[in-house]
Automatic annotation (TrEMBL):
Cofactor(s), names only, from the UniProt record: FAD
Domain Fumarate reductase/succinate dehydrogenase flavoprotein-like C-terminal: 484-603
The keyword Flavoprotein appears for this protein: yes
Record: residues binding FAD: 15-20, 38-53, 228, 388, 413, 428-429
InterPro entries: FAD-dep_OxRdtase_2_FAD-bd, FAD/NAD-bd_sf, Fum_R/Succ_DH_flav-like_C_sf, Fum_Rdtase/Succ_DH_flav-like_C, SdhA/FrdA/AprA, Succ_DH/fumarate_Rdtase_cat_sf
Active-site residue list: R322 (proton acceptor)
The protein, known as: Succinate dehydrogenase / fumarate reductase flavoprotein subunit
Entry keyword set: FAD, Flavoprotein, Oxidoreductase
Chain ranges of the FAD-dependent oxidoreductase 2 FAD-binding domain: 10-429
Example GO molecular function: steroid dehydrogenase activity, acting on the CH-CH group of donors
Keyword Disulfide bond found: no
Pfam families assigned: FAD_binding_2 (PF00890), Succ_DH_flav_C (PF02910)
Length: 627
């Protein structure tokens, strides 16, 4: 066996975004020895890119807001397919997590009377997103990192070692979860800089690896989002929930091609920006679906009044949930009413004074100026849908984050259930904090209940190492970049925003062929530098994960014969109350592919059902489900 390092921890957290850092802090606060592993540099997770804010019903800007309203909005946004228990915990605990962040040093924007400021966002009834300009994720990460440093300083004072109880492993990629019988016992990883292997021995692992966007060609996600946590969980015997639901954010940049897909924050619309087509029409008024008709303005005048008098007017349809806006943009472009570069126009220049745009949306102003040579204080942006977020993920216990494999936990974007078929903007950042904390605590409870700690079998390590080295044994194998490009094209073109049976079948056929190609990719030894910083090798290993999650998405998308949230079937355009009762669950099949089963949704608790009018419930539930 090649030389490898071994390290032992109580809890290993894979992922150093908001979910991972909050889980690690929790486990450390409860006295455990923790490792945080991150594929990218410490601080460079997707969380850092979050712009709009963190949704929490603090009622700072509109005192009518409370957890019940937030819960209702989240369930509506997810079209009632959410794990209602997760939505309940999230709505109740999000304010506390935001205040905790403030106590740890986060500097949020303020209201005039000095409270944490909250802004409007799609699908939220009241201004609810706590924010720091359009750089909220940066502040979340800065604060949680600072908290970790302060805990390390405490440990130094007590043990003379900063890393006595919490160590960060940056630029270290986990390729396999290790098991002792049916229990988790550790993880196998390589260090990017050196290519050296590391075995982490740990009875409890928290997955917090984020999403899967790099399986698609046009995406707001960066290179780390290759579905690693999803695939690691599947390969370890856990299950994934409702993988067909992918959020295509309505507003990504469409031009220039090199930056296609980069996010244009929803705050642009929350702060007054409007969408228009090539005929200058505010087309969103034509796309308000029946389930939302009562809550959205029917004229531009009413929509505009809402910004200053939200109590007496309905919100503009530009602020419908993301799935609705993305489909509407897609339809306008298909109907030939798109912008010159194949999107639609998003204009804030005619709606707000230049200085306000620069103050409220500094990153957007900078991004368009630098990347597209467009001054958003003077002219509209061109935008179109981009693959942004995966609602599906590791099936977990809502209260503890425990997956079906003993010792495995998951939180954040790589876990499933919370957002149902569509996530509301801003709900992710608070999801990370609420469920990161719960998963960290769940892992500690599990540890404390363990009679016998597991041991890492040699055979598991040998298998992990052989798999990691396999691409070097095929120096003349296919180039991983070529295979990745074809995988991304398949997912974008055949499993994208609008889906049909024939295209999904074609996608599955293409994925079967890609499976052979993925197992044939090869890389050359990098010479004296060995395996250090070898991006071709890294991608060759990531491909296994992207392929597996793509199979899950395509299979589940073919199976679900309805349109709901982030899953639109042209051949089944309506929502079906019968399908709402079904979770689609993926597991690994005997041949290394994906098996799909139907699982009944747990009926909602009566006190939660009673938060809704029966007339609204009738839009989603079957007769026998109604209270
Ligand atoms: P991440 O923050 O992505 O962290 C994942 C971590 O896992 C990283 O450290 C990565 O290196 C690590 N990792 C992955 N694979 C491995 C592996 N194999 N081994 C080791 N480490 C691994 N949500 C909101 O609520 N509000 C917003 O305003 C908002 N804006 C957004 C803007 C953009 C541009 C994007 C892309 C997303 C936005 N979102 C927003 C969504 C939100 O940011 C993400 O859903 C969220 O940050 C995910 O957090 P996470 O902790 O689950 O994962």
């Amino acid at each position: 066996m090649t030389e490898l390092e071994r390290h032992s921890y109580d809890v290993v957290v894979i992922g150093a975004g908001g979910a991972g850092l909050r889980a690690a802090i929790e486990a450390r606060l409860r006295g455990k020895k923790v490792a945080v592993i991150s594929k990218s540099l410490f601080g460079k997770a997707h969380t850092v890119m979050a712009e709009g804010g963190a949704a929490a019903a603090m009622g700072n800007v509109n005192s009518n807001d409370n957890w019940q309203v937030h819960f209702r909005d989240t369930m509506r946004g997810g079209k009632f397919l959410n794990s209602w228990r997760m939505a309940e915990l999230h709505a109740k605990e999000a304010p506390e997590r935001v205040w905790e962040l403030e106590a740890w040093g986060a500097l949020f924007d303020r209201t005039k009377d000095g409270k944490i400021s909250q802004r409007n966002f799609g699908g939220h009834s009241y201004p609810r997103l706590a924010h720091v300009g359009d750089r909220t994720g940066l502040e979340l990460i800065r604060t949680t990192q600072q908290k970790i440093v302060s805990l390390q300083q405490e440990d130094h004072a007590e043990f003379g070692d900063y890393e006595a109880r919490i160590k960060v492993w940056a630029e270290t990629t986990v390729t396999k979860l290790l098991k002792d019988g049916d229990r988790i016992c550790g993880a196998f990883a390589y260090v990017r800089e050196t290519g050296k292997f590391v075995v982490f021995e740990a009875p409890a692992i928290v997955l917090a690896t984020g999403g899967i966007g790099k399986a698609f060609k046009v995406t707001s996600n960066s290179w780390e989002y290759t579905g690693d946590g999803h695939a690691l969980a599947l390969l370890a015997g856990a299950t994934l929930l409702n993988m067909e639901f992918i959020q295509f954010h309505p507003t990504g940049m469409v031009w220039p091609p090199s930056v296609k897909g980069i996010l244009v924050t929803e705050s642009v619309r929350g702060d007054g920006g409007v969408l228009t087509n090539s005929e200058g029409e505010r087309f969103m008024f034509n796309y308000v679906p029946d389930v939302f008709k009562d809550q959205y303005a029917t004229t531009p005048e009413e929509g505009d009044r809402w910004y200053t008098d939200a109590d007496n007017n309905r919100r503009p349809p530009e602020l419908l949930p993301r799935d609705e806006v993305a489909r509407a943009i897609n339809s306008e472009v298909k109907a030939g009413r798109g912008s010159p570069q194949g999107g639609v126009f998003l204009d804030v220049s005619s709606r707000l004074p230049a200085e306000q745009i620069i103050k409220k949306l500094p990153s957007m102003h900078h991004q368009f100026k630098e990347l597209a040579d467009v001054d958003i204080t003077k002219e509209p942006m061109q935008v179109g849908p981009t693959c942004h977020y995966v609602m599906g993920g590791v099936e977990v216990d809502p209260d503890t984050g425990a997956a079906s494999v003993p010792g495995l936990f998951a939180a954040g974007e790589c876990s499933g259930g919370m957002h149902g078929s569509n996530r509301l903007g801003g709900n992710s950042l608070t999801d990370l904090l609420v469920f990161g904390r719960r998963a960290g605590g769940g892992a500690v409870d599990y540890l404390e209940g363990l009679a016998e700690p597991p041991a890492v079998p040699d055979a598991e390590v040998e298998a992990a190492q052989a798999e990691a080295l396999a691409p070097f044994a095929r120096p003349d194998g296919e180039n991983p970049y070529a295979v990745h490009a074809d995988l991304q094209a398949t997912m974008n073109e055949l499993v994208g925003i609008i889906r049909t049976e024939s295209e999904l079948q074609a996608a599955l056929e293409s994925l079967v062929k890609l499976r052979d190609r993925v197992s044939g990719v090869g890389v050359k030894d990098a010479g004296p530098g060995g395996r250090g910083y070898h991006p071709g090798w890294h991608l060759a290993l990531d491909l296994r994960n992207m392929l597996l999650v793509s199979e899950c998405v395509a299979k589940a998308a073919l199976e679900r014969q309805e349109s709901r949230g982030g899953h639109t079937r042209e051949d089944y355009p309506g929502m079906s109350a019968e399908w709402r009762k079904v979770n689609l669950v993926c597991s690994l099949s005997g041949d290394g592919g994906v098996a799909l089963t139907h699982q009944p949704l747990v009926p909602m608790r009566t006190d939660l059902l009673e938060l809704f009018e029966t007339s609204e419930l009738k839009k989603y539930l079957t007769e026998e489900e109604l209270p």
